[in-house]
Amino acid sequence: MRAVFRRELKAYFSSPLGFVFVGFFILIAGIFFALTNLLSGNPNYTGVLGSITFVFVFVVPILTMRLISEDARQKTDQLLITSPLRVSAIVMGKYFAAVAVFFITLAVTGIFPLIMSFFALGGLAGWEILGGYIGFFLLGSSFIAVGLFFSSLSDNQLVSAVETFAALLFIWILDTVSQSVPSDPVSGLVFLGFLAAGLVVLVYFTTKSLLATIAALIVAALAVALLFVFSHSFFEGLIAKILNWFSLLKRYNDFTLGVLSLSPIVYYVSFSGAFVFLTVRMIEKRRWM
Amino acid sequence: MIQVENVTKRYGQRLAVDRLNFRVDKGEILGFLGPNGAGKSTTMNMITGYLSATEGSISLDGHDILEEPEAVKRQIGYMPELPPLYVDMTVRDFLSFVCEIKGVPRQHRREHMDRAMSLLKIADVRGRLIKNLSKGYKQRVGVAQALIGNPPVLILDEPTIGLDPQQIIETRNLIRDLGRQHTIILSSHILPEVQAVCSRVLIINKGRIVASDTPENLSKGLVGENKLTLRVAAPETDILAAVRGLEHVTKASSAGSREAGTIDILVEAKRDHDIRRPLFALCAKADWPILMMKSMDLTLEDIFLNLVTEEMEEKEVS
């Protein structure tokens, strides 16, 4: 894993990609810092971090687009996969390299609160800022995991970047969407129905067996029907509930308030873990194509 | 050493490799011969664990590639069809990276890299970025990469493609030398190449083995006839009639005139009958000077077409 990590990290800075990411990120962070803190004399730095989270939607695709797809295009994946390394070690090496670039960038923005500390008369809320940074780092790492996954779906960097962008944008608006979706049980039922139908279609495309598809259809329909009959309350606000599972931003709010609690940390780490795992599965699946 | 049993690979509906069975013994240099798309690369990709077989099993020294992938991969150096190179690295950094992922202990890395670089003669470009190298150099870095870690098995997919004639000869010599310490599987679609280095050849077509033998036997066994081209200063009709009259000659035809006053003819005779002496005697007697006589080289296409047509005939019979 270390070898892959070091190679990828070096690769970021032997092409413009790493510099574009770092530069763009610091530029945006700098603008927000200057506007919010310096020019208006506001000591609330975690607020700045909170308001620049939107940058992830644009810069994470740049960071992750070539991670896996470039290997598939250049056929270097043959070198990696036929080496004694495990696929999980390869993927984790790549993931941590991207995370490391992000970490380096964040470390540079550490200058901002440092600058502020010279001027803040009442002193800075140091722990609060550190907490904000931890949350910000975890949020970014989760987005990077999503990008990593989409990079494994295609051998074209641009396609990966666009897919990642779309996915992140979706995650981004999820919060807003989940607030205004209908919460009555019937729409919950319809939504679950669609999910179940999607699952059945997935079964069809993975097994290509009509029998398995019909079986899956029956099981899904029965499960949804039984659930609707016996546990009516389950469908209350179901859409919002499901959407909230994927809402990364909602969990970030705690950090901006200076609250460092375990549950969002666990959430982010497992969210990243899940996408890293999916990426590993995706690459292992390719061998069976 | 390598055992391939009943291996089948399907890409969706398309059958790429069809129930392949063969084994490679220690110290052998095995050549895969076949046209493009015959399943050579797919087979190699399966042996190295890059692809998984749809059916069947592949094992190395009794270790199954799917069950103990790490143990098997450690034993194999692989150079795929397109050399897998990180073009944004220098040759030295790249080989050092390969050492790391292959788990070569730190204190031996230098040694492994120096050996690979000197064998492939790439030491002079060690500090250059791979993307700036010529195709021949890239190819050689690809082979060097496979040698790192000194694996007992080397699998080389078209190792001489893209090299100039001088480099091709050097690479063939290198493969022959490596064959003393390593078991090698290489693929090619050039017959002389396989002939020059391999101790055994598998001819693959449409994912199936159509022949497996030593190169000598293959070229002998497959030629139905001896073929000769002859340039003689003689009247066309006379010489053709006279040659057809010779014993063992199955066919004689004119190939036109390339030199004023001479005629080129194509003579085919039964296998195991050298007709060069009778031909000379015939022409000498009639006072027709022979200006050129050579036996036709057997090309892969000939062998190949031969095998494929034989196969089709068999099918029709059964």
What does this structure look like?
The complex is a heterodimer of chains A (289) and B (318). By secondary structure, chain A is mainly alpha-helical. In chain A, 80% of the residues lie in helices and 0% in strands. Chain A has 15 helices and no strands. Chain A has helices at residues 2-13, 16-38, 45-51, 55-64, 69-74, 76-81, 87-109, 111-119, 126-151, 157-180, 185-207, 210-230, 238-245, 248-256, 262-286. The model of chain A has no long low-confidence stretch (mean pLDDT 88). Chain B is built from 11 helices and 14 strands. Chain B folds into 2 domains: 2-84 and 140-221, 3-Layer(aba) Sandwich (Rossmann fold); 224-295, Alpha-Beta Plaits (2-Layer Sandwich), CATH 3.30.70.100. Helices cover 38% and strands 28% of the residues of chain B. Chain B has helices at 40-47, 69-75, 91-101, 106-120, 135-147, 165-178, 191-197, 215-222, 236-244, 276-286, 300-317; strands at 2-11, 14-24, 29-33, 55-60, 63-64, 76-79, 153-157, 183-188, 200-205, 208-213, 225-232, 249-254, 263-270, 290-295. Chain B is an alpha/beta fold and 318 residues long. Chain B starts with a strand and ends with a helix. In chain B, strand 4 (55-60) and strand 5 form a beta hairpin. In chain B, the strands form 3 sheets. Chain B has a 6-stranded mixed sheet with strand order 6-7-8-3-9-10, with helices on both faces. A 4-stranded antiparallel sheet of chain B has the order 2-1-4-5, with helices on one face. In chain B, strands 12-13-11-14 form a 4-stranded antiparallel sheet, with helices on one face. Chain A binds chain B through residues 2-4, 7, 10-11, 14-15, 74-86, 287-289, and chain B through 11, 45, 48-52, 54, 70, 73-74, 76, 78, 80, 82, 84-89, 93, 97-98, 100-103, 145.
The largest pleated sheet of chain B is described as: 6 strands, mixed
How many E-type strands of chain A?
0
Q: Unreliable stretches of chain B, pLDDT < 50, 5 or more residues? A: none
Helix content of chain A: over 70%
Helix content of chain B: 25-40%
Order of H and E elements of chain B: EEEHEEHEHHHEHEHEEHEHEEHEH
What assembly state would you assign to the polypeptide chains in this entry? heterodimer
CATH superfamily of the largest domain in chain B: P-loop containing nucleotide triphosphate hydrolases
Distance between the termini of chain B: 35 Å
How would you spell out the order of helices and strands of chain A? HHHHHHHHHHHHHHH
Number of domains of chain A: 2
State the total count of DSSP E strands of chain B: 14
Q: Helical stretch count of chain A? A: 15
CATH class of the largest domain in chain B: Alpha Beta
Shape of chain A: flat
Give me the CATH architecture of the largest domain in chain B, please: 3-Layer(aba) Sandwich
User: What are the segments of chain A in which pLDDT stays under 50 over at least 5 consecutive residues?
Assistant: none
As for the number of domains of chain B, it is 2
**Residues in β-strands, percent of chain B:** 25-35%
Count the DSSP helices of chain B: 11
